[in-house]
Every structure is written in C-alpha cells, then in structure tokens.
C-alpha cells in the first residue's frame, strides 16, 4: 500500500508537470499568434489605413511599448503620410537614436528633413550613412540635396544611380526632369518627363511638367500622351499660362478658351483668367 501511495503521488506530480508544461506551450503559441496578428495589423496601418488613424494607432502602441523600434518606425512613417512633417522629424530622430536603428532609418530621417526644408540637416544625416549603403531611397535623397545646393553634376549622377535601383522610376525621373527644367535645359527635361510617362502613363505631374517644358521652348502643342478630358483641359490651362508669361498673349487667350471649352465641368480658374484678359 505504501508503494502504491508513493506511485500515486508521483503520478500526480508528473500529471501536474505535464499540465503546467501544456499551459506554457499554449501561452507561447498564443503569444506567437498575437505577434503574427499584430505584425499584419501594423502592415495594414502603415500601408492602407487612413493616415490619421494610423498615427493614432502607432502613437498608442509606441506609448505602451516604448522599446519597440518597429512601432516607432510605424509612427514616424504614419506621420509622414499624414503630412505632419515637423512631428515626423522628431519621430525619425527617436528611431535613429534607438540601439537597433539601421542605415535605412537614418536615410528616412534625411527624407524627413528634406520634407521640412532642412537641407543642411539632411545633408549631414546622409553624410553619416556608410557609403556602402547603396539603396534607391538613399540616392534619391542625395540627388535632391545636391539639387538644392545647385551641385548639378552630383545631382545628375545621383538621379541616374537612383533610376537604376528601382523598378518604378517614374517619380525620380519626374524629379530629375524638373531639375533640368529649372536649369533651363528644356529638351533634356522633356525627354525625362516623357520617359517617366512611359513607366507610369497616369502620372499627371509628369504630364503637366512636360507641357511646361514644351511651352518654355514656345512649342504650344500638347504632347501626344494618354489623358482624360479633364486632364486635357488642365494641360491647356498650364500651356496658356506659360504662353502668357512669355508675352505670347494671343496664343495664351486661345489656349484658355480651349481649356474652358474642353473641360467637362466648369473650369473656374481658366474662366477667371480669360475674363481678366478682357
């Protein structure tokens, strides 16, 4: 009986240990599931959620988990999406100061400085990134910083490198073209805007910039690119203003009339400009 009691007691201990071990396994599995679910939610918030909603989510999450750099990144990214540049700079500075910060984080801090026109800080931040860190975002920002300093040789070099590091170069080609436009190199600008539109036919800013480049050369014919009726009206308006600015007033008036007539809805700006011309 004594041995039976001992074995019974041992059985209870073993059973208790198994139950305890099982509970731990369940808790660990639940934690893993929560991490997966949270990671998915974080991705959704950073990419498709409304900007202010994402800011609120990551602000709360970062307060509750102040050591989590992923949540700090989410907050910084969401502030950029929400157009809250000054706050985004502070958020990216906090990320860059984190022990687990990466070179990508410092590049994003430079981008936040650029968005708030803090060019010296952006330049200094990029200079501190190792030269071996060669990414699209790094060279895109390097090009913009060089542009701001009117260091055209470096700007062109960085734009070219950035273009080769992405499969979606329309945005950087548009920026490069606008840089050429501000320098007065209208033919190069037109070529770059046209190339941007080959990659992204719906990029309206490139269409508008292309019209500016053509107008600057007194070529007042709209480019042959895909456009909606509303876009056509807007581009005619842009061309008209370009012509008027260059004292080609008669052409400008005619283009304004075309813009008003072409627009599928009332085009207040064009109509007001036309009325002002008498």
TrEMBL record:
Keywords: TPR repeat
TPR repeats: 170-203
Keyword Lyase: no
Range of residues in the leader sequence: none
Keyword NAD: no
InterPro entries attached to this UniProt entry: TPR-like_helical_dom_sf, TPR_rpt
Pfam family, one: TPR_16
Name listed for the protein in its UniProt record: Tetratricopeptide repeat protein
Organism: Rubellimicrobium rubrum
Native organism taxonomy: Bacteria, Pseudomonadati, Pseudomonadota, Alphaproteobacteria, Rhodobacterales
